[in-house]
Amino acid sequence: MAATATGATAAASTLTPALFKRLHPRPYLDKFIGEGVRPDGRPVGAQAKDQAVWRDASINIGSVSTAPSSALVRLGKTTLVCGVTLEIAPPDLATPNQGFIGVSPDLFPLSSFSYATDSRERTVPNVDLSPLCSPLFRPGPPPDEAQVLSARLRDVLLSYALHSLPLFTFHLASNSSNVVSLSSLIIEPGKAAFVVYLDVVCLNYDGGVLDAAVLACVGALKSLVLPKATFDIDTNATICERPSPANDSGSRIPLGSEPYSVSFGVFNGQLLPDPTLFESQLCSSQVTVVVASPSSSSPSSLKAAPLLGVYQAGAPLEGGRETLRQCVAMARTRAEELRGMVAQ
């Protein structure tokens, strides 16, 4: 190991930075961390400040004009778009007073409104990681990461706030929701309900995809206006009145709380908030904290922002509970910043 590190150090003086990064990624990152800075210029360790440790984030609501609602999110170089489509379907017999958050086959083209009578494939939002966003992915069936992200995104949107949870697990309750109110999607109990399809397409993959996907879904759901719909018992059909500026008869989906996901990596014992793809591939541990942003922005409510989930992958966390507490505290601060961004 020492010989390898010595060889990499010697090579650093003869190679260009880009080539050294490609051939010796771990020594490359280690050199930056040792200087108290990350490859993209963000500070680390004692030099880090709350505002400087995160990548620049932005959200553009209504970026897809053909969709009822959409949001384009940039998190550093990671870019993705969330589009919403609507259908009408009969509710499940077990939950006659609830609608659906569902998955549709593709994002483009995004139709305005369509109507369906079957209830297949209405279980998880769809996250598309195509070869266009990164050479890590190949054409064909969805990669494992896309399937995991889709399931995790559903758990976040249909989750309870957790008052206590075990360490190092992703623990989310998903039969009811205090994030998305499924009862607000009902048109006629037992007869008709809205199905909200959330399609997330990654345009550029550079780490933090779940964080960006959750942010995009929250932005799209907050701006979604459901059309005024009535169920005709005589014809057994649903009649919708399309929302328009001249006819503001639609309704919005009430969000019990706004979930925000914040990721961290641990490299050589150093906590790296919001890691890039290059950093996350070298981290020994990765932690994702999902918090529900409080309705008010007072300091007391910020500290009490409930957890929706904690996920830890890789080796056991260096620092254990103390590192996890630090992640949760930083995630709550970051969630408040993201909430302000969505509210603008």
Please characterize this protein's 3D structure.
The chain has 344 residues and is of the alpha+beta class. The protein has one domain (27-106, 121-161, 176-343): GHMP Kinase, N-terminal domain (Ribosomal Protein S5, domain 2). It has helices at 2-12, 17-23, 25-34, 144-157, 209-223, 277-282, 299-303, 321-343; strands spanning 57-61, 69-75, 78-89, 100-102, 126-128, 186-188, 192-204, 225-226, 228-232, 237-241, 251-252, 258-267, 270-273, 285-293, 307-314. Strands 1, 2, 3, 4, 5, 6 and 7 form a seven-stranded mixed β-sheet that branches. Strands 13-12-14-15 form a four-stranded antiparallel β-sheet, sandwiched between helices. It has a two-stranded antiparallel ribbon with strand order 8-11. The model is unreliable at 103-123 and 161-177 (pLDDT under 50).
Q: Which helices and strands occur, and which strands form pairs?
A:
Layout: H1 2-12, H2 17-23, H3 25-34, E1 57-61, E2 69-75, E3 78-89, E4 100-102, E5 126-128, H4 144-157, E6 186-188, E7 192-204, H5 209-223, E8 225-226, E9 228-232, E10 237-241, E11 251-252, E12 258-267, E13 270-273, H6 277-282, E14 285-293, H7 299-303, E15 307-314, H8 321-343
Parallel strand pairs: 4-7, 5-7
Antiparallel strand pairs: 1-2, 2-3, 3-7, 6-7, 8-11, 9-10, 12-13, 12-14, 14-15
Helix pairs in contact: 2-3, 4-5
